[in-house]
Amino acid sequence: MSSDDFHPVKRTAPAIKGRGTANNTQGRFAITAVELDESDEPVVAPQTEVRYEYAKSIITRNQSPDVPFNLSVNPYRGCEHGCIYCFARPSHAYLDLSPGLDFETKLSAKVNAPALFEQQLSKASYQCQPIAIGINTDAYQPIEKDLRITRQLLEIALLYKQPVSIITKSNLILRDLDIIRELAAQRLFHAAVSVTTLDNDLKRRLEPRTASGQTRLNVVKAMTDAGVPVTVLASPMIPFVNDSELEQIIHAAADAGAQSAHYMLLRLPHELTELFEGWLRTHVPDRADHVLNRIRDMRGGALNDAQFGRRMTGQGIFADLIRQRFHVALKKAGLCNERLTPLDCSQFRVPPKTGDQLGLF
After folding, report:
1. Residue 41 domain flag
2. Which candidate in 35, 68, 190, 258 could, as Cys together with 232 as Cys, close a disulfide (CB 3.0–4.6 Å)?
């Protein structure tokens, strides 16, 4: 992949503060490293660039027992939301790009995803299972507004009666409420809205290009009012950063009409350890060591624990305390942490080919 493969988007960051990180650390597979001379010159905010990718396949099989789906579709690589804690950042190393600033400024859009999705659903060997859309990076990040890949995937899902779910931080999902409402009415759709913080100042630093917490709660209400099953994810919980908001988020989710709520503990795989520590020392330097030490307390002495069964919730007394707080808050709010009603795979069908289907593309 060369820089010529990227095409500038007409959207530039006004300052580096509009990005999750200024760190463009090399990925773990890089053969060479570039070191820049120190300079007093201000950092120039990079443009967002998009590479148009033609994928070979689009449905990915998940091997983790910690998540409630086996199949997923990711229309984009990288994410302009810029969440510093995003567990998907290290995946940019596979593209020989940095999990840091490159992850949120050099994006890939799988423009043939809708055609591939329909092709794979049409195979005689395909056995219908619920498919999660946009798990690695947000399917409703800003470039979706123009590219509309996620909307096309939903149109195909409705055509095939293929059950799908989506996790997002964006109110752009409401653009597609016409399709989502139809899917939900046929028990073919679940939504999960991630609410990390209700503090707008923290949001601007932690996840700079996402919708505000209140806007996300408004999304929950709008979708609930439309008959769409919604859960809220209070994630990730970060000690001494946003964990004090756990109860507030749970109660706000209940008030917005969410059917259930869940939480996950911060994960720091691979390069994310360095990136997140850099963020702490820039934005909360007085608490940085406290945060890192508490994470170690919940990760068996390390900053990350990839062990299935523990990586989402941690271990030790502090992890147990968050777990207890979560369940008490759920009970007080009248919510549950059970999975939403299972989606219905029995309706799946491969529709007859007609000229009308070409209109999807």
Report:
1. no
2. 258
Phi, psi of 235 (to 5 degrees): -145, 150
Residue closest to 89 by CA, chosen among 141, 136, 48: 136
* Average confidence score pLDDT of the chain: 88
Number of independent structural domains in the chain: 1
Residue with tokens 């498919």: 131
Phi, psi angles (nearest 5°) of residue 301: 95, -10
With 0-12 CB in 10 A as exposed, 13-18 as middle and 19+ as buried, what is 148?
middle
Domain carrying residue 302 = 8-34+46-338
What integer pLDDT is reported at residue 43 of this predicted model?
56
Residues 6+ away with beta carbon under 8 Å from 121: 156, 160, 162, 350
Whichever domain contains 226, its CATH number is 3.80.30.30
Bridge partner list, 110: 53
Task: Report the C-alpha gap between 177 and 352 in whole angstroms.
Answer: 26
Q: Give the C-alpha separation, 273 to 296, whole Å.
A: 12
Distance CA 181, CA 183 (A): 5
Contact by Cβ (8 Å): 135, 77: no
This model's pTM is above 0.70? yes
Burial of 336 (0-12, 13-18, 19+ CB in 10 A): middle
CA proximity to 301, closest of 313, 288, 314: 314
Q: How far is CA 114 from the centre of its chain?
A: 20
Q: What residues have CB less than 8 Å from 253, skipping those under 6 apart? A: 195, 217, 220, 232, 234, 261, 333, 335
Peptide bond into 236 cis (omega under 30): yes
Q: How far, in whole angstroms, is CA 288 from its chain's centroid?
A: 25
Tokens of 321: 């305390």
CB 290 within 8 A of CB 241: no
pLDDT tens digit string along 14-53? 336 678 888 877 776 665 555 544 444 555 677 899 999 9
Kindly provide the b/e burial profile for residues 278-316, where b requires at least 16 CB atoms within 10 angstroms of the residue's own CB: bbbeeeeeeebeebbebbebbbeeebbbeeeebbbbbbe
